Amino acid sequence: MSGRNDPNGGHRDDAHDAEWRLCDADCGAVDELVEANWCRKHAEACARAARVREVLRLLEAGPAPDASLADATLARVLRAQGERTTAEEALCIDDDEALEVFMGSGYRLDRVPGSLRPRAERIASLLTLVTLPGADGASPDLVERTMARVPIRMRTEPARSWRTTVGSFRLQDLVSVAAVVLIAGSVVWPVMATTSSMRSKTACGANINSVASAMGLYSGDYAGQLPVAAAGLGGGTWMNVGKGPGESNSSNLFTLARSGYTSLKQLACPANAKAPCGGCTPEQRDWANLDQVSYSYQIMFGPQRPSWEQGPRVVILGDASPIVRSQRAGLPWHPLQNSANHCGEGQWVLRSDGSGCFLTTPMAGDDNIWLPGVLEVALSRIADRIRQGQSSGIVEIRGNEVPDSATDSFLGP
After folding, report:
1. 3-state helix/strand/coil string of the chain
2. Domain map of the chain by residue range?
3. pLDDT per position as a tens digit, 55-64
């Protein structure tokens, strides 16, 4: 293969140089102008030859053009034209973008977005070939010089269908981000809900401890008795919250806040968004309605009531009774339902000896804390009749039931 010397001292192959020649029409115009011995009349007859003639006039250094200077100038023009990136030599849009991101990330594949990573991996494979003979790895200088020679251009193409870029993100990147957000949400949301539930349960346990301290202070002032605003011998209702001490058992528990032994905030389960947490005045005797009551208290209506830290341990306080609330709403209930305060997982309870614990069932030993002893017996008899094939019976909470004894736990409302 023949070759020729570059005017700047380099050597170029004719086959490679052929890609940098003028187009056929311009070459023909130059040939005609040379054959006409740079005749102005002939140059004016051909538009292309005229433009060549005007360019060459810039090289005139006397009455005649300097042929060597013209040759050097044309060689420089051809070289500059060859170094210009053409459409055939340019990278495709995706490879160009992958190259930019790969270089911008410090040549680290783990920092390249997933949609561009396969192309970046192929580019990285090509870069592994850029090594010096006999060297253990790539020469940083050679890599930099090689990358500097790769044509990088600003893309000005109009937006095109689904591969269009939006700012610095492509639509498929946005779809990928949306998918990641959805997947992360499906994983994180239950975790956050569980964390919130645990936080609420922990705060509720702290409330039970605070109420235990308040019970101790009250019993110290009232000869070991539990808080009571008004108590009867039975027969009246204890379910009408807000109607006053004579009709509401919750007013007995409210006495702790009204008398300053504790606060309404400590008598409010964090899971009950309707429970008031502010202050109360001495004139207030009860919560306004059943929804505001967070904890069910031992029914103090009746002839027998437990004492604080005296006698057998009895559950005297717990999370809101689900049976009372279902009965008031006219809904069916099950005797082994857990309180709704903690998503049905169980309930915090306080015993008469000052100890508190979390029960996953309403059974404290053999005693159901939601029901008086008489209803527990009735339910047992109904279960026996059902096992014998007889028809089922109905058990209701009317609001006038009382504990069977001082050791019978029965919480409400």
Report:
1. CCEEECCCCCEEEHHHHHHHCCCHHHHHHHHHHHHCCCCHHHHHHCHHHHHHHHHHHCCECCCCECHHHHHHHHHHHHHHHHHCCCCCCCCCHHHHHHHHHHHHCCCCHHHCCCCCHHHHHHHHHHHCCCCCCCCCCCCHHHHHHHHHHCCCCCCCCCCCHHHCEECCEEHHHHHHHHHHHHHHHHHHHHHHHHHHHHHHHHHHHHHHHHHHHHHHHHHHHCCCCCCCCCCCCCCCCCECCCCCCCCECHHHHHHHHHCCCCCCCCCCCCCCCCCCCCCCCCCCCCCCCHHHCCEEEECCCCCCCCECCECCCCEEEEECCHHHHHHHCCCCCCCCCCCHHHCCCCEEEEECCCCEEEECCCEECCEECCCCHHHHHHHHHHHHHHHCCCCCCCCCCCCCCCCCCCCCCCEEC
2. 3-83, 204-412
3. 766 655 444 4
